[in-house]
Amino acid sequence: MTLSVTFCGAAGGVTGSCYLLRTPVGNFLIDCGMFQGNKTVKELNYGPFPFDASDIRAVLLTHAHIDHSGLIPKLVKAGFIGVIFATQPTCDLLTYMLPDSGYIQETEVDRLNRRNARRGLPTVDPIYTREDAEKALKRLRPIEYHEWVEIVPGFEVRYWDAGHILGSASIEIKIDGEAGQKPRHLLFSGDIGTGEAVFNEAPEGPADVDYLFVETTYGDRERVDVSASERRGLLANEIREALEAGGNLVIPSFAVARTQELLVDLAALFNSGALPKADVFIDSPLAQRATGVFARYLPPEDAHALTHPNFHMVPDVEASIQLDRIKKGAIILSASGMCDAGRVRYHLKNNLWRAECTVLLVGYQAAGSLGRILLSGAKSVRIHGDQIQVRARIRNLDIYSGHADQKTLLDWVKGRLPVHKKIFLTHGENAARATFQDLLHANDIPPKLLSSPTLDETIILQRGQELQAPIAKRGGADAMSREDWHNDYARTLTALSEKLAGLGTNREREKLLAKLGSLIDRA
């Protein structure tokens, strides 16, 4: 039977990571992640999988981040009855992350359906529920680093520390060939870490493989190397300036890993006197639970730092709402890190319009996400249907990224050589992939060895006598690396509102609206 891989996510974008590996001994998934970013991309979460979930024998999970794990409950709901393999820390994190994701799906859809009812639009169903997520957890099975495990006869896997977050892995796979054929040897990078993160070791992995699948999130940029003390100094400067401005500091932060890294550094800064006493509110139920998981695996000093007396866990929605009463001096860490869901949107809504406040972005912002729009310098944004003026200071601190930069990615790829058949560049926006591909070529890796697949593209790794059914390609792939029409629509509404407000008379406003109406009628 033919051996092939289909890129069912994170091809031309950085979310929705999912590879369908069809082999002579069955079909497998490497990751099953949720799409994030603009609305066109997020709509992919609601459509059917481009494969039959009941035909998947097992899922091999690289790590717990939702863009790699977030559609697992949907997979189980769709008929998957196999095992999900992941490291023990990843399993522990998913115990909280997947139910939390299900709860978010339910609450976001409930809010949308109330709005749709007022507009006379049909209701929609959540991608999955908290109950679906609880069912998916029963299929998790822990796997150790560095040990070969036979998933089924003829299909072995070995996990390597990817250095990205707690429990993250690169996955090595060996697949027995048919009679007279050599086994195929594959390596999926997952997300490669920096080697300098607060909690993680340098990324590792084997060399001498047939096929290498490597992420390229930061394939087009290098970051300045900083020590722990330099990193904390940069954070302290941002916080001091924010507090001196006289307002609140809102930090949209990924609930898993990024929040805990920030807390450890904040504790060190408070203890050393580098920062004045300030209240830090962790307003994310998931971040609170994930912090407990991290504490079980961290050295005692770091675990103790997570419970600093300046840190206040926000227990419920009512307490979160009460934070709106605080007008200055508060540091609010809240998810999501791309500002596209969760409680952080309420804090942005309450603080963005205030010139004395600051928003500090500390992670990757996908194309079309609210975080990317803020980073691009937008003067106003729409949150929960309301237009909000952006008067707050928008700051960016990229040193906390959990992804390897261009140089670290290049070194990691070189460490995997020789690669005999093909290097697939994935999990990166198109510009980043193209830049990294040129860099690999400049480092004596021949162009014929390199491939940048598109969403739902199938590539034959080894041709067999039995043909495989084609995989239907979904729409929306072209929006993975850019903003979409929903972003244009929001920007147009904002521009229209500002233009109308700036006109001197009602007659001028009537003329402008009449002109727009005429254009719409002719469209």
Could you outline the blueprint of secondary structure elements for this entry?
Blueprint: E1 3-7, E2 19-23, E3 26-30, H1 39-42, E4 56-60, H2 66-69, H3 72-77, E5 83-86, H4 88-119, H5 130-137, E6 140-142, E7 149-152, E8 155-161, E9 169-175, E10 184-188, E11 209-215, H6 228-244, E12 249-252, H7 258-272, E13 279-283, H8 285-297, H9 300-305, E14 311-313, H10 317-322, E15 330-334, H11 344-351, E16 358-361, H12 370-375, E17 380-383, E18 386-389, E19 393-396, H13 406-416, E20 419-426, H14 430-442, E21 450-451, E22 458-462, H15 485-502, H16 506-522
Parallel strand pairs: 3-4, 4-5, 5-6, 10-11, 11-20, 12-15, 12-16, 13-14, 13-15, 16-19, 20-21
Antiparallel strand pairs: 1-2, 1-22, 2-3, 7-8, 8-9, 9-10, 17-18
Domain Beta-Casp: 259-374
InterPro entries: Beta_Casp, MBL, Metallo-B-lactamas, RibonucZ/Hydroxyglut_hydro, RMMBL
Domain Metallo-beta-lactamase: 15-243
